[in-house]
Design a protein that fits this description.
This protein is an alpha+beta fold. It has two domains: about 80 residues, no CATH class; about 130 residues, 3-Layer(aba) Sandwich (Aminopeptidase), CATH 3.40.630.30. The protein has five helices and eleven strands. Strand 2 and strand 3 form a beta hairpin. The longest helix is centred in the last third of the chain and has 15 residues.
């Protein structure tokens, strides 16, 4: 049997490893605490095994090599290609630009910024999936970035966003550099996921030294029961 790379199934790797304490399920199937994120996976890719764990009032996200087929009581709401990108080195961040650590006390502001800019799913406890940093000006959070999925030897850069009024100043680049530099300093390599149609993001990450490793598919499953969102 061909040995999978740790990043070939990043959600399952995270759920079975670093996210273990935040996930429900067992060694065959797991789903993340819905307040942390919408992700779910089965060890062998059999979605039927994870279906009983999926919430019936919200979407569930799967990141696999191919589209995931919907089990009974669910429908495929959306599929999108993802580029998985990895970096061996990144330019250092500007030492004069100060970022601060973000935590539970900042969660409401982080959600507001993510809701405004839509860097990906960011819910009530998403900040607990990793380490986040932010840039504040006049007391307001205007930019942030952090970490999310973890695999042996790799940590994902995620939640990169800048308030519309502060865009064009390179804050997303600087925040990404700071997070990626911290990952490299820990002995791991940074990786991330981006939609190939998001050309500004692809340019940003390519300019920082990230290269496309492979394509994956995001499948969003939605409950089909009457009244389910």
């Amino acid at each position: 049997m061909t040995q999978l790379h740790p990043l070939d199934r990043p959600v399952w790797t995270a759920l079975a490893g670093a996210w273990h304490s935040l996930a429900a399920g067992d060694e065959t199937a797991r789903r993340l605490d819905p307040d942390c994120g919408p992700f779910a996976a089965a060890r062998d890719g059999n979605v039927a095994a994870v279906a009983p764990l999926l919430p019936r009032d919200r979407d569930s996200w799967f990141v696999e090599a191919d589209v995931v087929a919907a089990p009974p009581e669910f429908v495929v709401a959306e599929t999108r290609e993802l580029w998985q990108m990895v970096a061996d080195a990144v330019p250092p961040p500007d030492p004069a630009l100060r970022f601060v650590a973000l935590g539970d006390a900042d969660a409401a502001e982080m959600i507001d910024l993510a809701t405004l800019t839509r860097p990906g799913p960011f819910l009530a406890r998403t900040n607990r999936l990793g380490d986040f940093i932010g840039r504040r000006e006049a007391g307001r959070l205007i930019a942030m970035a952090g970490t999310r999925m973890r695999a042996p030897g790799f940590i994902e850069v995620s939640g990169v966003c800048t308030h519309p009024e502060a865009q064009g100043r390179g804050l997303a680049s600087q925040a990404s550099r700071a997070v990626a530099a911290a990952i490299l300093a820990s002995g791991a390599r940074p990786f991330l996921h981006a939609y190939p149609g998001n050309e500004p993001a692809i340019r940003l990450y390519t300019g920082l030294g990230f290269r496309r490793r492979r394509s994956l598919v995001l499948t969003i499953l939605r409950p089909s029961a009457p009244g389910a969102r």
